[in-house]
Amino acid sequence: MTNLPAGVFSPVLTPFHEDLTPDRERFVALCQKLIDEGCDGLVPFGTTSEANSLSIEEREDLLEALVEGGMDAGGLIVGTGLAAIPDTVRLTRHAVGLGCAGVLMLPPFYYKGMSDEGLFAAYAEVIERVADDRLRVYLYHIPKVSGVAITPGLIGKLRDAFPDTVIGIKDSSGDWDNTRMLLEDFPGLQVFPGSELIMLDAMRLGAVGCITATANVNAQGLARLYAGWKEEGAEALQEAASSVRRAVQSQAMVPALKAIIARRDGDDGWLTLRPPFVGLDESQTNALFAALEEAGF
Amino acid sequence: MTNLPAGVFSPVLTPFHEDLTPDRERFVALCQKLIDEGCDGLVPFGTTSEANSLSIEEREDLLEALVEGGMDAGGLIVGTGLAAIPDTVRLTRHAVGLGCAGVLMLPPFYYKGMSDEGLFAAYAEVIERVADDRLRVYLYHIPKVSGVAITPGLIGKLRDAFPDTVIGIKDSSGDWDNTRMLLEDFPGLQVFPGSELIMLDAMRLGAVGCITATANVNAQGLARLYAGWKEEGAEALQEAASSVRRAVQSQAMVPALKAIIARRDGDDGWLTLRPPFVGLDESQTNALFAALEEAGF
Q: What predicted TM-score, i.e. pTM, was given to this entire model?
C-alpha cells in the first residue's frame, strides 16, 4: 500500500467543440498544464467534468487520449460510477486496464432511498465482475448532487469485505462534521475532502490531500497549501486558497471555471458547456471577475 | 394527431436471470400477458422497470425481443431519457426506428438545480439530433426519484418550440395539484398520471389514461376502471383499484410487484432484482400479502 495517490487532485473540466463533441486537444492540454502547475494528479470525469453528460464511449476516448498523450496513468483517479452496474464495470475495467491509480466511484444514483445493503450489493457486484487485483476504489460521497449518500455503515461493510480494494473516499458533502467523522472513525481510509475550504483542518486529522474543482484554475495556490500545511504560515496559505474558492463559487461552479479559463487563455472555445449546463450571462460573468479581483486572484 | 396512445399503460417490470442478466423470455411473456389482461399499451423502461439499472445495449436488446416477439410497436411508449445527451439520442432513435408510438423522456438527471433554460436546451438538442418526424415525446416528471422537476415553464417552452413532438407528460409527482395544473393549463397536452389513486379525478379533467406500476399485477382492475370511468359505479371501480394500490405500496414498490408475480406464477425467478434494489424479507413479504388479502386482491 505504498505510493498511494496523495496531494492536490483536479477533477478536470471537459472542453467541448461548438458541436458539443468533446475536444481531445484542449482536454489533454489542460491536463498537462495542471500537472505542470503543481497538481499531484487528476480526476478525469468527476462532477465538475460534466462527466455525467458524457457517453461511455466519449469517456473512454478522452482517457485514451490522455494516456496516449503521455500522462502518467499512475496519477489518475478516474470517475467510473454510473447508474447501471454493467456500465460501471465497463468503465472501471477500462481505467484499470490503462494502469490508472484508482477509480472514483459514485453509487448507483438514479434510484433514491436504497438501503446500505442494496448499495453494498451494487459495489460488490462491480468489484467482483471487474475481478482485477489492481483495482483501487475511492467512494464518491456527493449527496447533494447524486442524491445517494455513502453512509458510515456502507463504508464499514465495504472496508470489511474489500479492505485492499475500497481504500478511500472523496467527501464532497460540504459538511466538516462528516469529513471529521471519516478521518476519526475509519483509520487507514484515504480521505480526500472535496473542497479546499477545510483542507488544512482535514490534513491535520490525516486527510491525504484534496480533490477540488478549483484546482482547474488555482493549482498553484493549492499546491502551495499542500506543500506548506505543516509549516508556519499555513493559515495564510489556507486563507488565500479559500478566498479564491469563495469567489469562484459565488457563481455556478462549472460555468465559472470555464469562464475563468476562457478569459485567462483568450480562448472562447472554453465557454461551451453541454446542456443541461448553461454559461454565465454577462452580469454573472462580471460579478465573477469582480469577486476574483477582490480576492486578489 | 389521431390514434394517440390512451388508456392503461404498464411500465413493465424487467425480469433477470440469477446472474443478473435480463431475461428476454420472461419479459416478452409478461408483456404479452399484460396486453391480454387489458392493458392498452406498455412502457418498457420506466422507473418501475429498473431501467436505470440497465445498460443501453440491454435496453435495445429487450425492446427488439419484444417487437420481434410480435408486440405491436404502436402500443409502446419507451423510456429513453438518460443523463447524457448522446445516450438519450441513441435510445430514442432506436425506439423511433422500431416504430414505437412514443418515448418517455426523463430530463438529464444527474446534475441538480439546473435552469429551465438548460433543461430546455438538453431536450431540444435530443429532438434536433434525432431529427425524425415520427418522434413523439412524453416528458417524465418524477422529481422524488430523478431529482429534476419538469416545471410549467419548461413545458411551455417545449410546447412552443416543438408542438408536434412534445405531446405529453407522465406526472409521477404524486401531487394532485400538479396533475390538475397540467390538465387545466396545458390544453392538448396528453397527460398520464403516474398513479391510479387519482385516475378518475384526472380522467374527468381530460387525462388520457394512466401509466402505473401496479398495472403489472392489476391490469384487469385498471382496465375495468378505464372502461367504466364515465359510467355509474365508477367510484366503486376507483376504490377497488386504489385499495390494491395502497396494499402494494405498503412495501417497496418494485420488490413488492416482483414478489406478487413470483407467487402468482409459482416462479421464484421473478424474485431477482438488480442492485441497488433488494428483495423483500420474509416479514415484509408476509405483510404485503396480508395487506393484499385485506384489500380483497
A: 0.97
